[in-house]
Amino acid sequence: MRKLPVWLGGAIASLVFTTSAYAACDVNKPGYELTGDEAEAVYDCLKSDLQAGYQKGSKRWIPEAFVKDYPGWTKASAFPAAPGFHGGRFLVTYVNSIGADEYLKYKPENVSIPAGTQIAKESFAIDDDGKVTKGPLFLMEKVAAGKSPKTDDWYYMMVAPNGSPQAVNVFTACSECHLENFGEQGGLGYPVEDARIK
Ligand code: HEC
């Protein structure tokens, strides 16, 4: 193969860098081959930018404090894991003080999550070439009994990586999967077993 002049190589390298803002966090193997430690290293690299993105702009119908405060809550994920749901993304879960005790028991049944519990789940993706992209912030809030019987009194919300709230049909896009698959455990999916902080 013909060798590129040094100056052109440099120009291509900087072009790649500007079009892929997270080149700094990219890895040299497919996302599905990453160990927990390697996924955690990507998260460490990405975290401040990911969280700053979620914070940007008006949250409209989503409580501002929910998105602002969650990084200070109890973390339920020891490292980001990609269970194949939520678009195969790597997930990191935080729970507020009202729900943390009960959530972190990861009970398979008889779950009694108190009203006022809020859960935030960050996400990012690593494709088969090791390229990192930011994913949405997924939110769940347990509301007062009887307020939303169809969703077992869970409110579902979603924020894009650029901070804009995403209007989704929460029944078909969120609640059906949670209730059909995890109805027994209070509608909670929990991080995969290895990735749980106990
Ligand atoms: C196809 C099934 C499916 C759909 C659809 C789905 N989820 Fe989940 N969700 C899961 C699974 C599985 C977990 C646990 C996996 C993990 O966190 O590693 C989970 C976990 C969560 C959590 C952390 C609390 C918990 O259950 O442990 C939040 C918050 C969440 N989802 C929000 C949402 C929102 C908001 C939507 C809709 C925009 C949604 N989910 C759609 C399967 C789904």
From TrEMBL:
<keyword id="KW-0732">Signal</keyword>
<dbReference type="InterPro" id="IPR032033">
    <property type="entry name" value="Cytochrome_P460"/>
</dbReference>
<protein>
    <recommendedName>
        <fullName>Cytochrome P460 domain-containing protein</fullName>
    </recommendedName>
</protein>
<dbReference type="Pfam" id="PF16694">
    <property type="entry name" value="Cytochrome_P460"/>
</dbReference>
<feature type="domain" description="Cytochrome P460">
    <location>
        <begin position="69"/>
        <end position="181"/>
    </location>
</feature>
<dbReference type="InterPro" id="IPR038142">
    <property type="entry name" value="Cytochrome_P460_sp"/>
</dbReference>
<feature type="signal peptide">
    <location>
        <begin position="1"/>
        <end position="23"/>
    </location>
</feature>
